[in-house]
Amino acid sequence: MKLASFALATLIALGATAASAATLSVDLAPDTKNPTSPQMGDNLVFRTVIRNNGSTAVDGLIAWISVVQLDKGKEQPIDLEDWSAHKAVTAASLAPGQTLATEWPLRLIQAGNYRVVVSAVSRDSTGLVASSFADFTARQKPVVESQRVLPVALGVPILLAGAMLWRRRRT
């Protein structure tokens, strides 16, 4: 009898803990001001709204952004320190029905195809709540080609020197 009571209490405790993760929802959306065709060096912003859909407060909330590269042969998580992104946000408590709105700025430093997701946990949860994915492609930033610049860089000083010499000869 004591074993059955203990098992029932454990199941109830685990259910309540798992339920705290299930009460959270995370909505992710790219900012409407983001460039439609971003390139390296651009800044993107992703917005999240984390909501407590449950009937009890969620304590010790932690949310973080993850970015992964999806290019064939380069599949890997991205080091957010290089991309100037926030690492995480926290909230001491999120009351029932309360929301936490967050902006996640991201500076693009490498061309490629990427996927963003925001995850959240609470101190008491045993599960992870994740947003839907937001995909984007960062284009290569145009670079100056030396074949085009070199003739101008050399030609302008030569033309100026020639004009000065020609003017000197006339006087």
Structure description:
By secondary structure, the chain is α+β, with helices and mostly antiparallel strands. It has a single domain, classed as Sandwich (Immunoglobulin-like). Helix content is 27%, strand content 37%. The chain has two helices and nine strands, in the order αβββββββββα. It has helices at 2-22, 146-170; strands at residues 24-30, 43-52, 58-69, 76-77, 88-94, 99-107, 112-121, 129-130, 134-138. Strands 3, 4, 5, 7, 8 and 9 form a six-stranded antiparallel β-sheet that branches. Strands 1-2-6 form a three-stranded antiparallel β-sheet. Strand 7 (112-121) and strand 8 form a beta hairpin. The protein is elongated, with a radius of gyration of 28 Å. The model is unreliable at 1-20 (pLDDT under 50).
Helical residue percent band: 25-40%
Give the C-level CATH assignment.
Mainly Beta
| Total domain modules | 1
Could you say which structural class the secondary elements and strand pairing correspond to?
alpha+beta
Q: Strand portion, in percent?
A: 35-45%
Distance between the termini: 118 Å
Low-confidence stretches: 1-20
CATH superfamily: Immunoglobulins
SS summary, helix count:
2
CATH architecture: Sandwich
Global shape? elongated
Fold-level CATH name: Immunoglobulin-like
CA radius of gyration is 28 Å
Keywords:
alpha+beta; Immunoglobulin-like; disordered N terminus; 27% helix; three-stranded antiparallel sheet; six-stranded antiparallel sheet; 171 residues
Topology:
Blueprint: H1 2-22, E1 24-30, E2 43-52, E3 58-69, E4 76-77, E5 88-94, E6 99-107, E7 112-121, E8 129-130, E9 134-138, H2 146-170
Antiparallel strand pairs: 1-2, 2-6, 3-4, 3-5, 3-7, 7-8, 7-9
